[in-house]
Amino acid sequence: MNTFHIDWDREGRLGFPEVIYGAGKSPEVLLELLASYVADDKNALITKLQAEKAPPLLRQYPDAFFDQESGIFLLREEELSAQQARIGIVAGGTSDLFVVNEIHYTLQYLGIRSERIVDVGVSGLHRLLSRLDHLKSFSVLIGVAGFEAALPTVLGGLLPQPIIAVPTSVGYGVGEGGKAALHALLASCANGITVVNIDNGYGAAIAAFRMLGMGNSESL
Amino acid sequence: MNTFHIDWDREGRLGFPEVIYGAGKSPEVLLELLASYVADDKNALITKLQAEKAPPLLRQYPDAFFDQESGIFLLREEELSAQQARIGIVAGGTSDLFVVNEIHYTLQYLGIRSERIVDVGVSGLHRLLSRLDHLKSFSVLIGVAGFEAALPTVLGGLLPQPIIAVPTSVGYGVGEGGKAALHALLASCANGITVVNIDNGYGAAIAAFRMLGMGNSESL
Amino acid sequence: MNTFHIDWDREGRLGFPEVIYGAGKSPEVLLELLASYVADDKNALITKLQAEKAPPLLRQYPDAFFDQESGIFLLREEELSAQQARIGIVAGGTSDLFVVNEIHYTLQYLGIRSERIVDVGVSGLHRLLSRLDHLKSFSVLIGVAGFEAALPTVLGGLLPQPIIAVPTSVGYGVGEGGKAALHALLASCANGITVVNIDNGYGAAIAAFRMLGMGNSESL
Amino acid sequence: MNTFHIDWDREGRLGFPEVIYGAGKSPEVLLELLASYVADDKNALITKLQAEKAPPLLRQYPDAFFDQESGIFLLREEELSAQQARIGIVAGGTSDLFVVNEIHYTLQYLGIRSERIVDVGVSGLHRLLSRLDHLKSFSVLIGVAGFEAALPTVLGGLLPQPIIAVPTSVGYGVGEGGKAALHALLASCANGITVVNIDNGYGAAIAAFRMLGMGNSESL
Amino acid sequence: MNTFHIDWDREGRLGFPEVIYGAGKSPEVLLELLASYVADDKNALITKLQAEKAPPLLRQYPDAFFDQESGIFLLREEELSAQQARIGIVAGGTSDLFVVNEIHYTLQYLGIRSERIVDVGVSGLHRLLSRLDHLKSFSVLIGVAGFEAALPTVLGGLLPQPIIAVPTSVGYGVGEGGKAALHALLASCANGITVVNIDNGYGAAIAAFRMLGMGNSESL
Amino acid sequence: MNTFHIDWDREGRLGFPEVIYGAGKSPEVLLELLASYVADDKNALITKLQAEKAPPLLRQYPDAFFDQESGIFLLREEELSAQQARIGIVAGGTSDLFVVNEIHYTLQYLGIRSERIVDVGVSGLHRLLSRLDHLKSFSVLIGVAGFEAALPTVLGGLLPQPIIAVPTSVGYGVGEGGKAALHALLASCANGITVVNIDNGYGAAIAAFRMLGMGNSESL
Amino acid sequence: MNTFHIDWDREGRLGFPEVIYGAGKSPEVLLELLASYVADDKNALITKLQAEKAPPLLRQYPDAFFDQESGIFLLREEELSAQQARIGIVAGGTSDLFVVNEIHYTLQYLGIRSERIVDVGVSGLHRLLSRLDHLKSFSVLIGVAGFEAALPTVLGGLLPQPIIAVPTSVGYGVGEGGKAALHALLASCANGITVVNIDNGYGAAIAAFRMLGMGNSESL
Amino acid sequence: MNTFHIDWDREGRLGFPEVIYGAGKSPEVLLELLASYVADDKNALITKLQAEKAPPLLRQYPDAFFDQESGIFLLREEELSAQQARIGIVAGGTSDLFVVNEIHYTLQYLGIRSERIVDVGVSGLHRLLSRLDHLKSFSVLIGVAGFEAALPTVLGGLLPQPIIAVPTSVGYGVGEGGKAALHALLASCANGITVVNIDNGYGAAIAAFRMLGMGNSESL
Which of residues 70-89 of G touch H (CB under 8 A)? Predict the structure, then answer.
């Protein structure tokens, strides 16, 4: 019917290329899209790829990288320079790892090193307080939290950097699907935390990328 | 039409008398109800009395007590014995005072001394942390919070007592009306915090009263 | 990536240890966590463990206890002293058993005996009324209810103890997922019932534990 | 622009005439509509008439009846025969009187005597239980309830008649506007209670009228 | 743990026996409950029994009746006397058959004959208008409708009997789960339609049973 | 601060000029905007102008037209040619007049004659059925309905033209604010009705204008 | 029980025949319905047919057409005359193809040629802007969009035709199920876009068919 | 009762001082708070101050600044150095000015110059496209939008900077209160836009302040 019109311009315009949203696409469509990237000699990132759709892609591209936890698929893993991590990804527990990893690997695709700090939830505040100095060393903090999502609020009261909060769908009852976490983060008073959609690790990574661009690009 | 059937038994059955919900009743109905209490030589508590309905009641009962902030009306203020406060009411800011006071005066009506500790919000965590020892001295803690309501979650991770959380309707946007605060408190993982309805300071006071009764009553 | 930071302090701080939320963790992660508890010679409690994830855990720990109904996993069943049950768990029907059992086994893990009283729903009120004396004998009552959740409201009008209400996700139509039950419990006027999240049996058990601690601990 | 097309047929078709919904109409429009009824020598019923719109109507029709509480306006009060009341209107408290009266006066307009029984809320169950025999004497029961609306559920478990439940907008927090009451009534399991819209006393009265028609009309 | 306390009194009190809600119970529990009914020589009705749970029950009770469409299970089909159908069940299409049948078989269990009239939706109004005389012959009408649920509103404007409306979960988008149908039915102005929960065919049948009882029972 | 940038191009691009949304603008801002239109010798339309903001505008432009009901303000009333009305605006009652008029006067501003047909609600279906031939004579029908909004669904089953449905905020309980009407209209199955926002009479008028343009414009 | 009453009149009345909603019907019912159409020598359209229900239908009617993507089943594909496409179906990405195709094949069944233009999403606006002239050539535009659904809003600001917007259920977090897209489309200010239910491609096609009928039928 | 504990540390910790949320505080409380700032020789910012509460504050501090539109109160207006504006605040219309100004004056309080660009809504896209070069010159863009909030999505597809989106409560029907705008912004796919609460101009300003701090502070 239609052929695909990939937005090749996007990298020039925005600094990051078009990525592929994997959730609603068949393996056939995905393979066709990947072929376009290969033909153009570009690396490709697929987000939210369901595990059962990965094998045909990995058979075609055996050197590709797939993270089971987050559903991130990378045509090839980028080699990061030995820079210090500029982004800290902070979470309260291993249940949020699927979002933490989506952020981590999207940043890697964009050439940015990040550090994952999990298990510093607010129900044991001392674990967080004892690491404040380390947390101060990042340019941007991304707080990932489900349930009542108090963690980014606490971070926002203690630390001066830009803080991007990612509510997750982890929870049950009123917490199911992440609405309670989302609303708590938006209602968090007075500290300049910004928020992205539930489970939107990819969006948080791009937002952090935009912020990093402020300092090191003259086009801004 | 009907005459009122006040539940005079309640005090015997539950340990606390029937109180009057003031929001939807006219001054005429309220005066009629108060007269029943006076005839029975009982003190009476009206909750959520709108300020414009207080003057006719105060004209009839000049010694009564009315708190503008919370809409609590007491036929007479009970003299509390010089006991130590057993209930700590903790809030993040003065915006929540209307609920804090509803709790405070309901407890006073029930003969229980409480202490109000406001302005210890999580956006300045040190103010809370520096008072942990004092907070440990109460039998029951009641955390009052609007917006994202992170305060009771933080309390629950630091202190061992029963903690009753009261979400308030303070906030705007997704926080308007208190649903975000309520849901954050219910979704708060793993620490045995219990919750009452939005702005339900009265209910929190009764719940605390029930808990205090556990230790000092042989009928239990 | 990260190693786990279990909050070993929690028992000293709060009186109860950190438990493991089973729903979103893989068997591999759970086995790793259990190993930490074993290494520390501690009993462990996993909540909301899906049935299909139990076999690998039971193969590793053949003496562990797993309750199919509630998804509670205990590294070892605690021997309770021959005390009288201090907590009464009351429900209207067998459909709510998955929550009733989560409460029961969490309390057992904490060393507290409870009694389960099911099938006393409000549609046959005599069954409840005939057992009021027995219900009066508990220190704390936990009411578990789905659908319109009228049971805890009726309990609250008849009995003086602390009453913790647990709405359940049992129901359909407007009752689906438990929101109708939750809201009815929160809106229940005037009696000092407190509420936890939908299906949060674990939270209700911890809340009851906190209340029991009021009387028998001098640290309070 | 348009002239009004009153549905004069309705009485023949359904047994009850078209009534006037007062909330969104100006006094001018209402006076014009009333004139049509007078011209046709019919009694007229206006529902949900805001108090500030009644004076011009009462000036024009000094013998009309207006109930401040419910906003019911009747062109003339019908003389009821000395029949026994066939409909029992049951409520938990005086806060729901505005709906109780809307039912009562609508039934009076339809020529049916009803009895109002208020202050039998579930928080003092004995008041209800002691009147079961009286409640059994009605052909239809209408239960009016705000907050958690447990009353009609309790009635449904104890009494065999048709029970129409009217949730009211009385409440605050999650109970505000009556959604919690409505959902609790709809989710009420297993007893054949039927429900009308929040505050819809008029609808409940018409539904009861339809039920009474079953026995005494041969056209059915 | 607990033995079952079936509410055997209910039939004397309300005129209809306790039925079994099948959705959340295991086949083992259901078999145990059925045995109680058999031991008492009573017929039993299970509602909302998922198809996969029927075979073990049918193996044990080969003469029982199971309706795949509605999930109704009857220990034995009652022989109805050759009476005329007193209840008309009206629906707009075959998609709602699962609810239509739940009503039909529940009424059969209660000894009442009903007639099912489907495919008279409002998008082809003539099909409904041509059958008005037949519809007038029933004592009670039950309107079953998903999507926008306009059918019972149209019935209510044309026919004088009691009309019970059952919204169904048939629909998609904003109609998914039946909330749009439910709200449209509750908001339906001015005609005395009453409503039950989404998909609650059982409740509608019991409500109709209560109404039929008004005329032919002297206990009322 | 900023000067206004009115989208003067719009008329060339879309065939209709930019109009002024009156609800959130002060009289000062509105007067400034009107002056731009006058300077450009254009007629101007303000929608949703609150009655209290009209007097200063009418003082400045005494020949302007203001409709109290709908809040429509026209700098000058356009003289319509003696064409036959091409748009039929159909509503169930006078409560919806504020939206009916918003459509009518917006179309007048666009030079299109429309006819208002109110009081043909579905609770008296004969009034609608007797006017089908007249309704067939319009090019486009706009159905305006609050409460359960069954009217446009019935129209859609009987008439072949494009039907634009406008849900209104008229109603109470679940109908309050118009969500029930909106959802019923969107869920209306199978007949190609299209919907605009609640109370959006202006949008419906523009949509009808777009449809009329299909036939008589060669640029399409 | 009942035999089917297909609304054969509909084509005469509305210009399009009754179609079959496939989602909730069993293959047996569907085959029975198809047989009625064949007996009447009519083509039949089934919408939203789940893939697993297609094989038995295709075995019976091997020449039928089934589109896996959209679940559209046509008894026979209509031969369209070599007309120019009059309807443009515009979407932002391949994820919305299931709705795009439902529109396309429904229009084909109605004898109308349409053109599908996908991958012109607003995140790369130049792709849309470069095709404005082509888009102007259609009589009606149908915009299909999930997530934030900004595309039809942008179309509405640039193009003069009737624009029907179809929100899709594509998205996650707050976008899950399509409510965010639906609300954004309804709230889209000032441009006369009309909206159908989420994923309701069929309804959009019928609405477009009604619009096309305005010009070429004298009965209108 | 309690004296105020202002979080004087905040400036050292986060770089910006504690501000006063004006909405729920009485003029007496506000005056008391302002006195603390004056005593400490600090400038103070009050947000969301209702117009009727400003006069007593202005009487006490005649040199203070109050913006009627946004409810911003500044003890004294800071003199900004003649720097170029680093923040661009972009909106579609004057209805959003109350939020635009809250951002502008908060930034001024923090010593940062911003530029307000309003009336570039997406319904006239050319106005936005013609100013892309100017928009590229800012370090951070803040997009303010009500209704369907498509503007920040369009910005995100065209420009590379950090983009903070502020949904506003401007709209009606489904757009009332700003939920539709909020959800559309959160669901906006793939471009790294971050979002704050509805009408939270203050939060957006602080978030921008945090981002600016990344480049020019060595403590980060």
Answer: none
